[in-house]
Write a structure and sequence with these properties.
Elements: E1 3-8, E2 15-20, E3 26-29, H1 32-37, E4 41-44, E5 49-53, E6 58-61, E7 68-73, E8 81-86, E9 91-97, H2 106-111, E10 114-117
Parallel strand pairs: 3-10
Antiparallel strand pairs: 1-2, 2-5, 4-9, 6-7, 7-8, 8-9
Length: 134
């Protein structure tokens, strides 16, 4: 069931609301970007995401196929969300950083289902052999 969560970067310049069904799952990936960032994300449709403040304080990083925009606050460096358009995962999306949700409890975090993706080998629909470090 969807619930509206509020999130922000560390300094609070970038603030958002997102309608998330976290029981449907979250994701962790071992690609070069996600593993260095220790990313833990939930992917939603753009209409379920609202940037409340900080649009002018967001920087963008892209690499590889340039299908994804890795957004981050240029003041504190925190990547609260990203977005893109990848046909293989259903088109346009927003990826919300679970760690940036301000109104989720540690108990809720501990219960979240996680799907692991082997992005390091472009095997996005299979988990990597080792996931314990993700």
């Amino acid at each position: 069931m969807k619930k509206t969560y509020h999130g922000s970067c560390h300094c609070g310049r970038v603030r958002f609301e997102a309608d998330l069904d976290l029981e449907a799952g979250t994701g962790r990936c071992n690609c070069s970007y996600c593993s260095k960032q220790r990313a833990w994300n939930a992917t939603i449709k753009p209409q379920d995401f609202r940037l409340m403040s900080g649009r002018d304080g967001i920087s963008d990083y892209q690499f590889g196929s340039k299908q994804g925009h890795h957004r981050f606050c240029h003041a504190c460096g925190i990547a609260a969300f990203g977005d893109g358009d990848v046909k293989e995962i259903g088109g346009a999306f927003v990826s919300v950083n679970i760690a940036c949700l301000d109104d989720i409890t540690p108990e809720e975090l501990a219960k979240l289902p996680i799907q692991y993706m082997d992005g390091r080998h472009d095997n996005w629909f299979q988990p990597p052999k080792v996931t314990s470090y993700l």
